[in-house]
Amino acid sequence: VRERCGILRKAADIMEERRHELNAWICLEVGKIIPQADAEVSEAIDFCRYYADEMERLDQGVNLDIPGETNRYFYQPRGIALVISPWNFPMAIAVGMTVAALVTGNCTLLKPAETSTVIAAKIAEILIAAGVPPGVFQYVPGKGSVVGSHMVNHPDVHLIAFTGSREVGCRIYADAALVQPGQRHLKRVIAEMGGKNAIIVDESADLDQAVAGAVYSAFGYTGQKCSACSRVVVLSPVHDAFVERFVEATRSLNVGPTDDPSTQVGPVIDAKAQARIQEYIEQGKAECELAIACDAPSEGYFVGPTVFKNVERHATIAQEEIFGPVVAIIRAANFDEALEIANGTDYALTGGLYSRTPDHINRAAAEFEVGNLYINRTITGAIVSRQPFGGFKMSGVGSKAGGPDYLLQFLEPRHVTENIQRQGFAPIEGADQ
Ligand code: NAD
After folding, report:
1. Distance separating alpha carbons of residues 233 and 397, to the nearest angstrom
2. Are 415 and 391 in contact (CB under 8 A)?
């Protein structure tokens, strides 16, 4: 454990040294603006240091001895871990899942998303340079439906740590449940999936704060964060004022290439994503009222920030994860209804509330069904250990990344009880008495 933790800390130091190069790769390969790429590199570094500390804590085990009996509770690795990562946090999420698997003693295969293969190759370089022994870690780029699926179904894999879409996550969960010929264990699946995150703005909210926070949460990294806000539920008394200001704030965003320092909203990941988001926008135009569709450069995979208003809570664009810069504003008559609307999807990942009413804040903490609730602040940008991250319902299965229960999923707990009330030791045959 000491050696493994040392390797993680060394990897973190190398990431610090290579921060600018890594920022540049994130900017170029997946189109993230530099300030957000930089935050992502910080998150990857935090994961390495935090999981090293956590493993040292867990390695102490639990001992409960009584007279005549010792009890030892300790952990062992599960076996071979398969990490399948998404492109939207190509560095932080891939590093987090991979180093968690390694520090707990599992041999690990990393299958990154096709669109972030170079960044994952940089992670592999760093892990090798930090001292991961040969054969313990493998970088396996390839197509998810072919290479990823083959490994998910392989009888030698013990654990799958997946982050990505609901569709693929559910598929992996089902595939992994089948016991393959020769397989002598059940596979453990950790699946972090999508969201349809809402921010509630009540009548007591500070609108300056709410507008800026909702715009940042919705359009940061072009809406391609699992934590991004895609619905804003606004109470009637402030609805019209909020919509007007939200639309104007959206209009002011600079949309362009991410290597231009003035850009706030970059392109989406690829042509397929662009076409899918545009289809949702067309559907939105058919089922609700367009408030604004910002212009975007015609060359490249751009989609201008788009806002719909007076959206009906069950509309497609209010229910399905779009994973792009599209926001649905929904009106609520009162706070009960706002909570009902916010909870009215299959997902439970992040949520937000802008309010200066203590009763609303307390009720949201208890009743808003999300893994991570943010009050009077943006709903993206969770920090390792300070805001352990992850959802439930169809947003995922497993314990929060960057939290105190995370590493336990990569370990097998064991227990040994010994009766030490013996009447001397048995003689060994043939030994001198
Ligand atoms: P995706 O599901 O398309 O791909 C994720 C990974 O799965 C990739 O590495 C892909 O190659 C692989 N894959 C695809 N098909 C596979 C199969 N049949 N078998 C095995 N592996 C397969 O997701 P994406 O587009 O890369 O990422 C975006 C999604 O990820 C969004 O839904 C977003 O909400 C979600 N996400 C969730 C979190 C979270 O913490 N909850 C964080 C980031 C992203």
Report:
1. 26
2. no
Is 192 among the residues known to form the active site? Answer: yes
Q: Name the CATH superfamily for 2-193+395-418.
A: Aldehyde Dehydrogenase; Chain A, domain 1 (3.40.605.10)
CATH T-level topology, domain 197-375? Aldehyde Dehydrogenase; Chain A, domain 2 (3.40.309)
How far, in Å, is the centroid of ligand 1 from the Cα of 87? 8
Is residue 226 annotated as a catalytic residue, yes or no? yes
The string of pLDDT tens digits covering residues 331-370 is: 999 999 999 999 999 999 999 999 999 999 999 999 999 9
Q: Which atom of ligand 1 is nearest to the CA of 195?
A: 34
Which DSSP letter does residue 216 get?
H
CB atoms within 10 A of CB 118: 15
Q: Which of 5, 27, 48, 226 is catalytic?
A: 226
Q: How far is the CA of 161 from the centre of ligand 1 (A)?
A: 11
Please provide the DSSP assignment of 401-415 as one string: BTSTTTGGGGEEEEE
Question: Which residue lies with its CA nearest to atom 40 of ligand 1?
Answer: 192
Residue among 211, 1, 258, 229 nearest 105 (CA): 1
Distances in whole angstroms, Cα of residue 211 to Cα of each of 214, 315, 353: 5, 23, 12
> For position 345, what pLDDT does the model report?
98
For the chain, give every domain's residue range.
Answer: 2-193+395-418, 197-375
Q: What is the pLDDT of residues 141-152, one digit of tens each?
A: 999 999 999 999
Residues with CB under 6 A from ligand 1: 84-89, 93, 111-114, 144-145, 148-149, 152, 163-165, 168, 171-172, 192-195, 226, 321, 323, 349, 390-391, 395-396
DSSP string, 267-300: --S-HHHHHHHHHHHHHHHHHSEEEEE----SSS
- In ligand 1, which atom is closest to the CA atom of 226? 34
- Nearest Cα neighbor of 73 from 418, 314, 322 is 418
pTM: predicted TM-score of the whole model, two decimal places: 0.97
